[in-house]
Design goal:
Keywords: Cytoplasm, Glycosyltransferase, Magnesium, Metal-binding, Nucleotide-binding, Purine salvage, Transferase. The protein is an alpha/beta fold and about 180 residues long. It has one domain: Rossmann fold, CATH 3.40.50.2020. Bound molecules: guanosine-5'-monophosphate (5GP) and magnesium ion (MG) (2 copies).
């Protein structure tokens, strides 16, 4: 695939993970989830905004009966994580006794997912797992188990396929990384 570059705000990004690879990896996740959640009727909680493309491509490949709902966390500015627990918005389902799968765009330091897990566990779900499109293992600062990871990446800032840089870039069909 021919490399492409794109300028977003003040930064240049170049193609990094093409859509074909993303979809191939999502197919594997969908198979694992179908196996693990047969008879469990999971509730998927998709974390907006960044997960929207991942959620769509993943869940149309999942065939177990399931529910899908969308939540939001107070969003994060620029390229650095803040470390504060983000407020959980939009949880309208009763998750008590449910098998919950959180769908995230990316796990970086893990602050976001760690804080979210704490908040969800207060509602006594039967189980909670995380499925993420991307993960930066070398940045993780919390002891959390991320059961489903489509693709691990090094500590590079990426955009596209749902992920933004200060609002722009979510609509790109491939994932781009910042040119250093
Ligand atoms: P964490 O709390 O794990 O440090 O960060 C998770 C959140 O930070 C993600 O949901 C995402 O919004 C943002 N984030 C972390 N790394 C990146 C990145 O490389 N690109 C973009 N666009 N967002 C990122
Ligand atoms: Mg996110
Ligand atoms: Mg963002």
């Amino acid at each position: 695939m021919e490399p492409r570059t794109v300028k977003i705000h003040d930064c240049e990004f170049s193609t990094y993970i093409f859509e074909e690879e993303i979809i191939a990896r999502i197919n594997i996740l969908a198979e694992q989830i179908d196996e693990d959640y047969a008879d469990k009727q999971p509730l998927f909680l998709a974390v907006l905004n960044g997960s929207f493309m991942f959620v769509s491509d993943l869940l149309k490949r999942v065939s177990v009966p399931c529910e899908i709902s969308f939540i939001r966390l107070k969003s994060y500015q620029d390229m650095h994580s803040t470390g504060k627990v983000k407020e959980l918005l939009g949880l309208t389902e009763d998750i008590r006794g449910r098998h919950v799968v959180v769908l995230e765009d990316i796990v970086d330091t893990g602050h976001t997912v760690h804080g979210l897990l704490q908040q969800l566990k207060e509602h006594n779900p039967a189980s909670v797992e995380i499925a993420t499109l991307l993960m930066k293992p070398e940045c993780l600062q919390h002891q959390i188990e991320v059961k489903y990871v489509a693709r691990s990446i090094p500590n590079d800032f990426v955009v596209g396929y749902g992920l933004d840089y200060n609002g722009l870039g979510r609509n790109l069909r491939d994932i781009y990384k910042i040119v250093s």
